[in-house]
Amino acid sequence: MEALLRIEEACFGPEMFSPEVIKSFIEREDCFVLIALEDDTAVGSAMCMVSVPRSEGKVASVAVLPDHRKQGIGAALLQVCEEEFRRRRLNRYTLEVDTTNEAAIALYSSKGYEIVGTVEHFYGPSRHAYSMEKLAANA
User: Fold this and answer.
1) Burial category of 125 from C-beta neighbours within 10 Å (exposed 0-12, middle 13-18, buried 19 and up)
2) Percent of the chain, pLDDT > 90?
3) For the whole model, what pTM was predicted?
4) Nearest-CA neighbor of 132 among 62, 83, 33?
5) Is 96 a catalytic residue?
6) How far apart are CA 7 and CA 94, in angstroms?
7) Phi/psi zone of residue 60: left (φ > 0), alpha (ψ -120 to 50 degrees), beta?
8) CB-based contact 48:93 (threshold 8 Å)
C-alpha cells in the first residue's frame, strides 16, 4: 500500500487516488493491482477494474516513477493487465487518458487502443480525457 501511494503521489500529485480508493482496488474481487519492481523497489503500478456483465476490463491507472520512464515499464504493465483481462474472457478493454498526455496516448495507440470519445472536464475544469478502447479480437 505504501509503495502504491508513493508511486501515485510521484506521478499524479494532488490528482492521485486517495488511500481509500487504492485500498478498494486491493481488496475488491472485481479489481486487481500490479506493481513493477526493479531491484526489489516498486517503480510502477497499474490498477484495473473488471466488469464481467459488461465483458469489460478498465485500466484505471498506469503509473511509472519519472526516473524510470521510457524503459518499457508502462508497456509491460499494460500487457499484464491485458493478459489478465483475456484470462477472465473479457471482450473490451477501456481507459481514459488526459488529452495532453502525449506519451501515454502514444503508448496506448501503439498497443491497439483507439480514441472513441472525449470526456470533458474529466480531470477538473477544462481538463479533458480521451476515452480509449481496444477490442479483444484486436488484442
Assistant:
1) exposed
2) 88
3) 0.92
4) 62
5) yes
6) 22
7) alpha
8) no
Active-site residue, selected from the candidate residues 96, 102, 114, 120: 96
Tens-digit pLDDT profile for residues 22-75: 999 999 999 999 999 999 999 999 999 999 999 999 999 999 999 999 999 999
Q: Which domains does the chain have, with CATH numbers?
A: 2-138 (3.40.630.30)
The three grid cell numbers given for residue 133, joined into one nine-digit string: 478502447
Contact status, residue 100 vs residue 118, Cβ threshold 8 Å: no
- CA angle 132–136–137, rounded 5-degree value: 115
Candidates 129, 136, 124; CA nearest to 61 is 129
108, 120, 123, 133: the catalytic one is: 108
At residue 44, what is the residue type? G
Please confirm, yes or no, whether 130 is among the known catalytic residues: no
